[in-house]
Design a protein that fits this description.
The chain is globular, with a radius of gyration of 23 Å. The protein contains 13 helices and 13 strands. β1 and β2 form a beta hairpin. α1 runs antiparallel to α3 and α1 crosses α4. It is an alpha/beta fold. It binds S-adenosylmethionine (SAM).
């Protein structure tokens, strides 16, 4: 067999040097609300969604100055709290490190392992039809495409908080080298999550998870909505914002809530800053080398957003479709929605793939009870993959990370950091919901299977059979 020279891959990303900084990372629950609101700027004729001051006229020191810029409003300063600042910086740094880390973890190591094969073996596999080294080059290209989104999300995050892209190392606001490997995994999952929420190919997952919510909302509220009443819907654990957007488009006032900066930056970007419909490419499965029927499957590209939020809302406004509003509150759900200002303030709560993020489900039920109006509706869709299992955050190596928000279970402050955890079965959860002041009106049945960022062609299908049920807060 002819001897081949090792091809040299020259890549933009520098894969040498430390990838994981020795900076300790911990998470404190968000103890104060940091509401960050988006609203359609339709009156001024713009298609942009933009931020506005929600509750306070006090300008945050870190707000962007530009008019029409999406920004962070509210009187909570994340820089004033050590844990919060670390979380914010680590999320930003994880998007910065995404490109380099992915090249290192996904292709660089595979090249090394490949060249460690007996030379006649790697040489055979370097030739067509295998061309494995070409495959690695294509995967590098796919990583670079994904990294463009990471860069855009990072730029938006930096702008939102008025942070420098390259701060001096001794600057107290230096956020470089603060991300851990787990933070970079979250950045990666967040980018893959665009498949679920904002690609045409993710429609099958959305149909199982979001359509029941919209149907239930219509059944309950359509006539009141059409009569001009404002119907307020809370979407806790809003992820990348698609359900918030769809709820708004359906004519309701949707308030999303998220604790994870990864998710908040990415949803802000996709809701406010994409260049147009299908303007950005993502390769959601490029890093997966197992259970492939073909390489084409691995390198599949999806375009996002399948629907451009600004264009869709302008179109809805033109056609006189009742149009709602949307906002996003960055906070620990347990803290923000237990506040007295949120008492009995929502007509509905729509929890999708959310309740199993609870270490203590009783706290989640109390919070939903507190913020729902008497007679209000709680619509739930999702599995019970408890994110705190056996007292510890669950670690899944092969699955997409569906947790996103970190929890430090050693925290003693209120919110998700409160000590203790328990994992209940579906029948026990329903029993608890009834015991805590709700009447179950629709019980789980006719379960539709769905994945979570699942490659439909993979030889391994991780499928949920989510529990869909509807409960009403009993009027006392
Ligand atoms: C499994 S993801 C589901 C996201 C989205 N609902 C979906 O269906 O794709 C759960 C989300 O809940 C968020 N989350 C977890 N605990 C939270 C809390 N205490 N307050 C607000 N959001 C939380 C996580 O950051 C994550 O984005």
């Amino acid at each position: 067999m002819q001897k081949m020279e090792r091809p040299r891959r020259v890549h933009a990303a520098n894969v040498d040097g430390p990838l994981i900084p020795p900076f300790p990372h911990s998470r404190v629950p968000r103890a104060s609300p940091d509401p960050w609101y988006l609203c359609p700027d339709l009156e001024s004729g713009g298609l942009e969604l933009k931020a506005f001051m929600a509750e306070s006229d006090t300008q945050s020191a870190h707000e962007a100055d530009g008019e029409g810029e999406a920004t962070w409003a509210g009187d909570y300063d994340p820089f004033s709290d050590d844990g919060e600042r670390r979380s914010l910086f680590a999320a930003l740094d994880s998007f910065r490190q995404y490109r380099r880390t992915m090249h290192q973890m996904v292709t660089h190591r595979r090249r090394q392992a490949f060249y460690a094969l007996p030379s006649e073996h790697w040489q055979m596999l370097s030739q067509p039809p295998f061309s494995f080294l070409d495959t690695l080059n294509h995967v590098d290209d796919a990583i670079d495409t994904n990294a463009e989104l990471a860069d855009a999300i990072l730029a938006l995050g930096l702008e939102s908080f008025g942070l420098q892209a390259d701060p001096p190392k001794d600057d107290p606001l230096c956020w470089h080298d603060t991300a851990t490997a787990s933070d970079v995994t979250k950045a990666s999952s967040t980018i893959h999550q665009f498949f679920r929420d904002w690609s045409a190919e993710g429609a099958a997952e959305r149909a199982v998870c979001y359509e029941p919510v919209l149907r239930d909302l219509h059944t309950e509220f359509q006539s009141r909505r059409d009569a001009g009443e404002e119907i307020r819907v809370l979407v806790p654990g809003a992820g990348l914002g698609r359900l918030v957007f769809e709820t708004c488009l359906a004519g309701y006032s949707a308030e999303g809530n998220e604790i994870s900066y990864h998710q908040l930056f990415a949803s802000s970007w996709v809701l406010n800053h994409t260049a147009g419909p299908a303007a950005h490419a993502v390769h959601p499965f490029a890093g997966k080398f197992s259970n492939l029927q073909s390489r084409a499957q691995q390198l599949r590209k999806v375009m996002i957003p399948d629907v451009h939020p600004g264009v869709a809302m302008a179109k809805a406004a033109e056609t006189q479709t009742p149009l709602g509003s949307m906002s996003m509150a960055a906070a620990d759900f347990l803290v923000l929605y237990m506040e007295s200002s949120n008492r009995e303030s929502f007509d509905a709560v729509a929890s999708v793939f959310f309740i199993d993020t609870a270490p203590n489900i009783i706290r989640y039920i109390e919070t939903i009870y507190h913020c729902l109006k008497p007679g209000g509706l709680w619509i739930n869709v999702g599995p019970l993959l408890w994110h705190v299992e056996n007292g510890r955050p669950r670690a899944d190596e092969d699955e997409e990370d569906t947790s996103n928000g970190n929890k430090d279970t050693n925290q003693t402050s209120p919110g998700i950091g409160e000590g203790g955890s328990v994992e209940l079965s579906e029948d026990e959860v329903l029993c608890l919901v009834e015991r805590m002041g709700f009447c179950i009106e629709i019980r789980p049945g006719n379960r539709q299977p769905c994945g979570y960022i699942q490659d439909p062609d993979s030889m391994l299908q991780n499928l949920y059979q989510p529990s869909h049920w509807v409960a009403r807060k009993i009027v006392k």
